[in-house]
Amino acid sequence: MTTDVVCVEIPGNRDDVLRILKRTGISGVPVLKEGVLVGIITRKDLLRKPDEMQLGLLMTPDPVTITPDVTIQAATAILTENHFRRLPVVEGGELVGLISISDIVGAIARMKITDEIRNKFSSHTFAIWEESPLPLVGRIMEMSGYDAVPILNEDGQLTGIISERDLIRNSSIEDSVEVSDFSNGTDDDEWTWESIRDMHTISYGISKVQLPDKPVKDAMVKEVVAVPLNAEISECALKMKRARVDQLPVINGDRKMVSMLYDRELIRIILEEA
Question: What are the entry keywords (predicted)?
């Protein structure tokens, strides 16, 4: 597990969380209140609730936790069954660490597993055109549930990968003022006293996480690390760890992409090795 865990405290600021995720590239942070773990905030939370500023409403409360003596197989089973990316490790009511999919991928890299990934851990996916607007790409990823998507040019060639990490890296905080009309919709002449009395408007500030209106090709990772169908499991895990990526495109003999290898699928080998 990782023992030097980056955390945020309630009450806190959403903007601080965004800065932490941008600076570190991590996918989420535990939320503490008076030193006690009360929730988790992830990249998905910031992207799905761009208008929300309160950490208590952004976070997932009462996260599933484990103790330090839990086996790596048991931790992997919890992560895969619940589609989590991380598990807080708690001992005596105190947060002592965090075990993530990335940590388990690092363990797989050291296990020297020589089985090929062919037809075992690769997943079908879809691709997005490189000229697609970034806000639209973010919405497509949210609807599909994919953490990362390959990007193709007009000739169908793989030119990059866009991930939630890249969305966060390119996002910014946008402040604006909106006006709400609370009038009762009267049909009276607008100059009558009754009409004036029944017209109420409120102006209020809006602060939201915003993606810039630029093509996805300007935000994607262009130096893509890919693997062949006969790549070995531990070899792929090592490539993920070194490149700090959550996925690898899988290519055939003609170097055309045929599928994706996601870290959340790769860690299932731990359950088979148990």
Answer: Amino-acid biosynthesis, CBS domain, Methionine biosynthesis
H, E, C per residue of 187-243 = CCCCCCHHHHHCCCEEEEEEEEEECCCCEHHHCCECCCCCEECCCEHHHHHHHHHHH
**Ordered structural domains, the chain, with CATH:** 8-110 (3.10.580.10), 122-170+213-273 (3.10.580.10), 172-210 (no CATH)
Q: What's the chain's Rg over C-alpha atoms?
A: 23
Tokens 């969380």 belong to: 17
For the cut 80, the answer to whether the pLDDT of residue 197 exceeds it is no
The mean of the pLDDT values for the chain is 84
Amino acid making up residue 114: T
Structure tokens of 116? 């090929």
For the residues 6-29, what does the mean pLDDT come to?
87
Whole-model pTM: value is: 0.77
Q: pLDDT tens across 6-15, in order?
A: 999 988 888 8
Q: What is the mean pLDDT of residues 3-32?
A: 88
| 86 in Cβ contact with 107 (< 8 Å) | no
Q: Structure tokens of 11?
A: 């009450």
- Where residue 20 falls (left for φ over 0; alpha for ψ -120 to 50; beta otherwise) is alpha
